Fold this sequence. Notes:
With 171 residues, the chain is mainly alpha-helical.
Amino acid sequence: MIISQLKNFDSIYIFVTMNIQSILMSASDALDNENMEEAEKLFNLAIAKDRNCYLAYYNLAIMAEDSNNFAKAEEYLKKALEIKSDDADILTAMGTVYLKSEHPDEAENFFIKALEISENEVACNNLGIVYFQRKNYKKAKELYKKALAINPDYQEARENVALANFYIAML
Length: 171
């Protein structure tokens, strides 16, 4: 059954000889080289080898999100959360998928859960975007500034503070 999912000899060789960490590292290298097809194949091999490989589901979700395939990203993230429900990065990614697919209430819930686990500049910034969209510019600015306190080099948060200041001045 698993072997039938493997398309060629190279895939079978990788599946039999490599451990999960090696497969994930190879997939990450493929991503770094922008070889999405190879990365996807390797992440799927990792899942075939270990159905509880949440990192493979997470990375497939990020790839789907980058392609604006939010339904597929959500599907992968749900699988990752079934395995590791307390991972701030997975929760933040789910919130980001919901934010990008225009479901701000769901996005807010996931960003808040992520921030309860770990301070995370992306969750802060993106939760700020949710509040900004609701025209709560002061709360948005607080969150953007919190993101900058976590990572002073976070350019998107810096730009969002400036935008929030503009809208606050217009009130």
